[in-house]
Amino acid sequence: MSESDPDDEKPPDELYLEKLQVPKGGTDKTPELLTPVVHGLSDKWRNYVIRFIFTWLMIGAFCVIIYLGPYALMVITLAVQWKCFQEIINIGYSVYRVHGLPWFRSLSWYFLITSNYFFYGESLVDYSSVIVNRFEVFKWLINYHRFLSFSMYIIGFVWFVLSLVKKYYMRQFSLFAWTHVALLIVVTQSYLIIQNIFEGMIWFIVPVSMIVCNDVMAYMFGFFFGRTPLIKLSPKKTWEGFIGGGISTVLFGLIISYYLCQFPLFVCPTEYSDETNSTWSSFGLDCEPSYLFQIQIYKVPSSFGLSQIFGIPDTLNIYPFQLHSLSMSIFSSVIGPFGGFFASGFKRAFKIKDFGDIIPGHGGILDRFDCQFLMATFVNVYIASFIRTPLPQKLLQQVLTLKPEQQLQLYNALRDSLTNRGILQIIRG
Known about the structure:
By secondary structure, the protein is mainly alpha-helical.
């Protein structure tokens, strides 16, 4: 009796994955222009040079986009979202490799459009009510936004059911679930990023920069000093890089927060208004900075003994936002990397090295934004829990949807309340 092949004991899907050809990732891709520069270098140093060059190119592009303003950032966020979704869907398409699978790609993109319409429809109105109220068609779309979103999803759902083919049931339902997980990861997170931008560009720039700083410094410390492996999912990650990147990120966060807090362009919430002729003012980027972005005096507790040990003065003049930046920098350096570890585990599960090859030395777009999505969720939750207050424009938008008699009733109640508290007389005076 012959011994059984050990491969026979493996699940069919695992055997199939082992036969897949691993695509050449972006970290192995050398642009033709850089071939003379890296010629003769070892693989380690070749990858380092390419990664270094394209890191600074991306940082430069990021600065240009910031200069263009919040709406440019939102457009780029949507573009990144679509590219990340494409990379995830392409993996699913390659794994199941059924080129005749009915409507898979069309359905995936349809659900992406539907999800974006649902998430961004109401959100944009909250911050651009001045524009929306000028057009009756927009009012109708907003009043029935959720019903329209649900109707669009039901159309896609029925479309999927009608496309089912007997011999492909398992793969079609697997890809249906794959698409929805991709939507959860990509669309939800990009929606939170745009929500953060509306709170003020500083809530986007600082967290994104922290992730970039942590990634770059962890790579540098690991490249030159790394000796102790950190986690099996990512063999190249080391404790030296993890700790060095964390300390660098905390210091970087304090410095960049101090600098950005000085400019209304970065700290003012994004809200469209047609009351001014200035481009930046039209988007609410010229305002009186809130308490978070004004220098405050903090007394250092004498019990800490810091003044005697390190020569730190008894009082510190800092922006309150810098204290909040400590929370973000700690999260980005301690928890943020786990977004990368998750992505590493995902890629290992499907025998791929990178999500794509669009960025030489780095891989795909998702390879660079795996930690950013996790950070965006934390920042959004942090703002909602500790920072955000009710927005006048959002309340006004809700009032404008009421019937005229209900608006009048609310007006009378608000007028009586202001009069009883003596506020209305002060305004009149």
